Amino acid sequence: MAYAEQIAKSLSTYAADSSGVCSALFELGGMVVMHDASGCNSTYSTHDEPRWYDFDSYIFISGLTENEAIMGDDEKLISDVTDAAKQLSPSFIAVTGTPIPMMTGTDFAAVAKEIESRTGLPTFGFDTNGMNTYVSGVEMAYASLAERFTKYMRPREKTKEPSVNILGATPLDFSGEDCYTQIHSMRKMLGENGITVQSVWAMGDTLQNIMNSSSAWANLVVSYGGLKAAKIMQREYGIPYVVGRPIKGLNEAIVAALHKSFKDDENRIAYEKNTHADKKILLIGEGVTSESLACVLGADAVIPTEFDSELLRNGTLARGEESLRNIAQNYDVLIADPLYQPIVQSCTKFIPLPHEGFSGRMFSAQAPDLVTEIPFKI
User: Fold this and answer.
1) Taking the chain (378 residues) in consecutive chunks of 10 residues, what is each chunk's mean pLDDT?
2) Domain 17-132 classified CATH 3.40.50.1980?
3) Which terminus of the chain is more exposed, N or C, with fewer CB under 10 A?
4) What are the sequence ranges of the domains in the chain?
5) DSSP letters of 259-282?
């Protein structure tokens, strides 16, 4: 996947991949350790995690010192994590990387293997480095859960009634004054159409429910971070997946695609592909959300986070600020997080659509419930 230059002069940056791992695993009873001196954990807790003050979760920082970084003292990290795990008895352990261990070449797979041998707990080592967006971290976390915990799932035995797993749900993409509002709305919308939600990866749900995901009839991928896990579950259990974010105006298409996949076990993209915008409207944001909303609005999308070209409608992959600025000037209306306003030309109408993965909690109270409403007119 090729991106334009990754330089930002007046824009913010997306939450880092390490924050994506933490957000994906936050509610599942595991112990997540950021391997860093300090700073990455405070950025995550103060900007990227709305559940921080209301939900107990084992998120730690390793307190990496300069001497440990230079001398490569992985034993201290391993011992500290092992001791903490024996006291806390988490369901699993995850160790994530940051820029410093990237530069020193920490072998997270080896660290995880050693911790698991000492604790007997499932342990993941995520080679995150702070250079990629949260989408990459969410993808790593859910894919690892699917790979590791599928062996604990009972042989596939479908539920009696049609059911789905919702894959890719984190507050970084589904924010609001109450970050669970859109998850509740998705459950309600699917339920009203005769579809039960077996599990949500991973908001308002449990690790045990996730371990029973193989009984669902299909997976609904609501952000790109859930796609790799969906592919793993298809490989292991033959569970088909549908890609699309529930949004007013697209909900019927999503339900129709799910029912078709229930019958023929084929994968589907709920939003129309290869269509051109009939209005000069551009969206910027996470891929599945932007393409789904663009389909409803008759708009184009530019995706500055990790995404696959196979999922593009008529979108563009672009990460650098200048590339985004050049693309945006060709449109009459730009819909994006409020922090994108600096790239808007004077002749372009700007419509704010808060995205917690980009601006943190600054505008989350104004984030709409797109499942039930599109609160702006064009």
Assistant:
1) 59 90 94 80 73 85 71 83 94 90 84 95 93 94 90 69 96 89 96 96 91 92 97 92 96 97 95 69 94 92 90 78 86 94 84 94 91 87
2) yes
3) N
4) 17-132, 156-269, 281-366
5) HHHHHH---EESSPPS---SSSEE
